[in-house]
Amino acid sequence: MKPIETIMLTAPVIPVIVIDDVRHAVPLAEALVAGGLRVLEITLRTPAALDAIRAMKQVSGAIVGAGTVTNAAELHAVIEAGSEFVVSPGLTDSLADAAAETDTPFLPGIATAGDIMRGLDKGLEHFKFFPAVAAGGLPALKALAAPFGQCSFCPTGGISLRNAPEWLAFDPVLCVGGSWVAPRYASGDAVDGDHVAALARNAAALRGEDS
Length: 211
What we know:
Number of helices: 9
Mean pLDDT: 96
Order of helices and strands: HEHEHEHEHEEHEHEHEH
CATH architecture: Alpha-Beta Barrel
Largest sheet: 4 strands, parallel
Radius of gyration: 16 Å
Helix content: 25-40%
Structural class: alpha/beta
CATH superfamily: Aldolase class I
């Protein structure tokens, strides 16, 4: 099993986390891990992201990665910060090459057959389907996955507790990405750890059955 597949199979949901205040990083990570979601994707959408990765790395049981990585320079920066895997919204040759050169578990975003074929040319078989709902939803992924039986997916974008089981019931889907389990807190606000842990427990309990 490839390292990225092991990460994807750790839990049915990968929280997609936006950190505005680094002081939120550890409480969020502790609550998510306590609720059963160990794989944490910190998006590079705020200036606090790299420090948040460093902080979350200190939380026992957490598998911390970086999302919204768009180029090789960002990939090297998140690895230096301690990221254990990298997620991107799309796929370029230079980013795929940088991930391969650094031996980093890499989950690139795809939305077309051409994207998948480019990934296969780079030796990749695990992809983020993004933006999942806007790109046509589950019917689109089923049609897209049909010619590529060797590939597995993590749909992200528009996924919720309500629709996640339908996605997870599709065999090529190993997990889904979701922001609903990791609320975005404004600077100065306190993390509601009990609430986040409850959201995580509900997500971790998803088994892929239709509901």
